[in-house]
């Protein structure tokens, strides 16, 4: 029988790969793991306690906040504050950056961006939801860290990951040396290494997009969807369509089985819907580290996009490399290019 390796053991083992590391990043990842277990506990008993449903408030993006959105946000911020390795949290649920001002946090060198609960519309119906996190090193060297420390390009991330509260609960993360997945064993309360060195298959036969928006898609996306639906045994087409509505779940499936996830520009969301800082950049870091591809559909790596504001949005095409390249081909052939800022 293989001995189990817990997330804590794995993190310490990896820290030894970096002789000069002082352990701060390891402790930060540990803090995130603790918050994940607390949120997992609440998600698991969501039907039994008064935590389902709307909270009666909206976030900065005008989206209705669910009680679990708020709960998860509070838990992650509290864990990061108590841990003392993070000076600023940027969250989907907070309009402004959250400055952590305990004595130790003030001098901490890491910044964390989070989507505390991804897939909120699935909470009430017992479908997988998740948490996304992204970690940057503070760039400024004097005074307190500021918003500018948060607005770094995705290529600067030192770590990123997600937790998926699904049929089992998993934590998947990268520090830029591949992607590893850990499954929570509830009997011992530990995340245990279950998916070492995760890799996207080079291609797949599942596409994932909200087809309800079809009439509002750019012509290139419409043509790619039609390509997916055409009969061609040599390439395993027609492909299957799967769309959970929780990006983490759709992406996690694509990473294991192969596939593409697309959230393009639409008439309703001309800049795309998903947020760059705490959704697209961390997922793209993981995708690239697992051998996949993540772009805005216009041949620009998500990780290289300029970051101008905290809640900035972008279209995203990510998943198995060959599928993303094919979708981009269709995008390049169509003439309805959006606002130039997406392309540049
Ligand atoms: P969040 O719950 O954090 O607001 O994110 C939901 C996101 C993403 O997870 C999902 O893929 C997408 O929004 C679903 O949007 P549509 O309902 O427009 O397809
Ligand atoms: Mn989200
Ligand atoms: Mn969210």
In brief:
The chain is an alpha+beta fold and 344 residues long. The protein has 2 domains: 7-195, 2-Layer Sandwich (Fructose-1,6-Bisphosphatase, Chain A, domain 1); 206-333, D-Maltodextrin-Binding Protein, domain 2 (3-Layer(aba) Sandwich). It has helices at residues 7-15, 24-44, 67-83, 103-106, 147-150, 219-229, 247-257, 276-289, 321-333, 340-343; strands at 54-58, 64-66, 86-91, 98-99, 110-118, 129-137, 159-165, 169-174, 179-185, 190-195, 206-208, 240-241, 260-263, 293-295, 316-319.
Task: Describe the protein in words.
The chain has 344 residues and is of the alpha+beta class. The strands form three sheets. An eight-stranded mixed β-sheet has the order 4-3-5-6-7-8-9-10, with helices on both faces. The protein has two domains: 7-195, Fructose-1,6-Bisphosphatase, subunit A, domain 1 (Fructose-1,6-Bisphosphatase, Chain A, domain 1); 206-333, D-Maltodextrin-Binding Protein, domain 2, CATH 3.40.190.80. It has helices at residues 7-15, 24-44, 67-83, 103-106, 147-150, 219-229, 247-257, 276-289, 321-333, 340-343; strands at 54-58, 64-66, 86-91, 98-99, 110-118, 129-137, 159-165, 169-174, 179-185, 190-195, 206-208, 240-241, 260-263, 293-295, 316-319. The chain is globular. Strand 9 and strand 10 (190-195) form a beta hairpin. It is 31% helix and 22% strand. Bound molecules: 2,5-anhydro-1,6-di-O-phosphono-D-glucitol (AHG) and manganese (II) ion (MN) (2 copies). One manganese (II) ion is lined by residues 115, 118, 279.
């Amino acid at each position: 029988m293989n001995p189990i390796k817990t997330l804590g053991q794995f993190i310490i083992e990896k820290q030894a790969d970096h002789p000069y590391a002082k352990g701060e990043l390891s402790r930060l990842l540990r803090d995130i793991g603790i918050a994940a277990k607390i949120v997992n506990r609440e998600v698991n008993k969501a039907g039994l306690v008064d935590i389902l449903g709307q909270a009666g408030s909206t976030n900065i993006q005008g989206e209705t906040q669910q009680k679990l959105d708020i709960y998860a946000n509070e838990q992650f911020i509290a864990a990061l504050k108590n841990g003392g390795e993070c000076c600023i949290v940027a969250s989907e649920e907070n309009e402004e950056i959250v400055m952590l001002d305990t004595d130790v946090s003030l001098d901490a060198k890491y910044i964390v961006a989070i989507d505390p609960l991804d897939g909120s519309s699935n909470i009430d119906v017992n479908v997988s939801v998740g948490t996304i996190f992204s970690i940057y090193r503070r760039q400024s060297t004097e005074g307190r860290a500021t918003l500018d420390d948060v607005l770094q390009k995705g290529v600067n991330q030192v770590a990123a990951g997600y937790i998926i509260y699904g049929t089992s609960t998993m934590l998947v993360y990268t520090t830029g040396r591949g992607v590893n997945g850990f499954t929570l064993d509830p009997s011992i309360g530990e995340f245990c290494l279950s998916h070492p060195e995760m890799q996207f298959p080079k291609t797949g036969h599942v596409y994932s997009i909200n087809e309800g928006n079809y009439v509002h898609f750019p012509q290139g996306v419409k043509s790619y969807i039609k390509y997916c639906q055409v009969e061609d045994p040599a390439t395993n087409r027609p492909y299957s369509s799967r769309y959970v509505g929780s990006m983490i779940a759709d992406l996690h499936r694509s990473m294991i089985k192969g596939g593409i996830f697309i959230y393009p520009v639409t008439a309703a969301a001309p800049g795309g819907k998903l947020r760059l800082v705490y959704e697209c950049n961390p997922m793209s870091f993981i995708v690239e580290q697992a051998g996949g591809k993540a772009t805005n559909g216009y041949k620009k790596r998500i990780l290289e996009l300029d970051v101008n504001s905290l809640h900035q949005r972008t279209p995203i095409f990510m998943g198995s490399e060959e599928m993303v390249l094919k979708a981009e081909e269709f995008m390049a052939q169509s003439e309805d290019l959006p606002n130039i800022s997406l392309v540049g």
